[in-house]
Write a structure and sequence with these properties.
The chain has helices spanning about 15-25, 70-80, 90-95, 150-160, 210-220, and strands at about 5-10, 30-35, 45-50, 85, 100-105, 110-120, 135-145, 145-150, 165-170, 180-185, 190. The two termini are about 30 Å apart. The protein has a single domain (about 5-220), classed as Rossmann fold (3-Layer(aba) Sandwich), CATH 3.40.50. It has a nine-stranded mixed β-sheet, sandwiched between helices. A two-stranded antiparallel sheet has the order 5-8. It is of the alpha/beta class. Strand 10 and strand 11 (about 190) form a beta hairpin. It is built from five helices and eleven strands; from the N terminus they run E-H-E-E-H-E-H-E-E-E-E-H-E-E-E-H.
């Protein structure tokens, strides 16, 4: 059965079509979930893509977290369904309490649009199950507020429970512990700042993002292990 991926669209989202294109390139089907919808329509996985939800006028993700669709996304996550937030989507998941910590302005207060080399730290997540631990991936970043922060207790838990899924090899934004992506305790909710959907064609620079997008599809149809 073909995996169905719902791609959330807020006012200001600008990466939804990129995600849809790659999902379909890999043999899945994808559809838009507008932020005012209160149900997910039976999709197998959810991607909250990049952009500037509600213009990021208040704080990144602070308004988007109250959209009706996020209640449905939270229910999907609670049931073990795969949820992945990319860039602005990562910020939204943190604001919604689906992931710990927060994203603040980059060190140096500069918008970054460049390639970043990531190291896969675990394959036990909805985003990395098709990758290899230690694998290096060349994935572009495109953000101003991608500097991940959390309190020491949260960081200790992320490390102890193997919830850091991706780290920067050469930290571009000051992110704590070189963190580029994390997962929840259930390992089905993942957020990352780099854009794997933009690294899906070698002719455009890199296809290293395909293994991450393939992992999302592989996680469809199965309930990820939930925390005990």
């Amino acid at each position: 059965m073909t995996s169905r991926v719902g791609v959330v669209q807020f006012p200001g989202t600008n990466c939804e079509l990129d995600v849809i294109q790659v999902v379909e390139q890999l043999g899945g089907t994808a559809e838009i979930l507008f932020h005012l919808e209160s149900a997910l329509g039976g999709v197998d996985a959810v991607v909250v893509p990049g952009g500037f939800a509600h213009g990021d006028y208040l704080r990144t993700g602070a308004i988007a977290r109250f959209s009706p669709v996020m209640d449905a996304v939270a229910r999907h996550a609670a049931e073990g369904g795969p949820v992945v937030g990319i860039c602005n989507g990562f910020q939204v998941l943190c604001e919604a309490g689906l992931l710990p910590g927060a994203l603040q302005k980059n060190a140096g207060l500069k918008f970054l649009c460049e390639d970043a080399v990531l190291r896969v730290e675990t394959t036990d997540s909805a985003l990395t199950n098709m990758a290899t631990v230690g694998q290096h991936l060349n994935i572009p970043i495109n953000h101003f507020e991608g500097n991940y922060v959390c309190d020491p207790n949260v960081l200790a838990r992320l490390r102890a429970e193997d919830q850091v899924v991706l780290r920067y090899v050469d930290n571009p934004n000051g992110s704590l512990d070189n963190i580029a992506g994390i997962c929840n305790a259930g390992r089905n909710v993942v957020g990352l700042m780099p854009h794997p959907e933009r690294a899906s064609d070698a002719l455009l620079g890199s296809e290293d993002g395909l293994v991450l997008m393939q992992s999302i599809l592989a996680a469809c149809g199965q309930v990820m292990s939930m925390p005990r």
